[in-house]
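Complex 233.
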Amino acid sequence: MNPRLRVFYGGSFDPVHNGHLAIARAARDALAADVALLPARDPPHKPGTAASAEQRAQMLALAIDGETGLRVDRRELGRSGPSYTVDTLAELRAELGADAPIAWLIGSDSLRQLATWHRWRELFELGHLVAVQRPGAEVDVVRLREAAPAVLAEINDRWLPPGALVESPLGGFALLPLAHLQPESSTELRWRIQNKEPWQEWVPPKVAAYIGRLNLYAGAAVILRTSHQSDCP
Ligand code: ATP
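Predicted structure with adenosine-5'-triphosphate bound:
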């Protein structure tokens, strides 16, 4: 029997936006894989999300409602302490077995920050890493050499075409091409909501309705961030 690649896509999703969804769909379609989206209960790099973990998970569920090949995996919500990706991947590896091809999906801004992630080199002992380009943080060998030399050194010999990831359980790196780069960010979205700028077109209608009903992100407590980071130690 052919092995099946399983793709996992973690984030704060505060809130989920169409950029997240486009990336999940692109990975699903290009890799012929199911994609699980994992809301972090306690994103290590973001001290206090604006919406609660449960609200972020509910928005994610609304965003992918009825969509083939996408699902929400709530495992990080049930774990106390910082939601480190390495712990999640270790759990998944234990569950799915040593031979299962597993990939973790990130944006290129996160790839540039990867060396700040908790026990980041161990990620490659647990699964593959797949990155997609993000506007303002595009990566290639030259740019990575400048912005993240340790990351480039780690992935240099791991580079695979995306279609080859299914042939091994772990240890590879792939850059997934996107037809269109996605400009959306949760930070910008929260800012727009708080400042009553147009924002609805950046999220699915059911998510917009949820945000409106709970009056999320409208108050002074909204935490605004300017840089894209991920999973610091
Ligand atoms: P924030 O603006 O608060 O940093 P975000 O929009 O980056 O939030 P996250 O939930 O932190 O949202 O992102 C989860 C993952 O999705 C990260 O790896 C991030 O790089 C990636 N990502 C988010 N938006 C995009 C996008 N527009 N293009 C490519 N990757 C993205």
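The beta strands are 6-11, 34-39, 70-72, 102-107, 128-132, 173-176.
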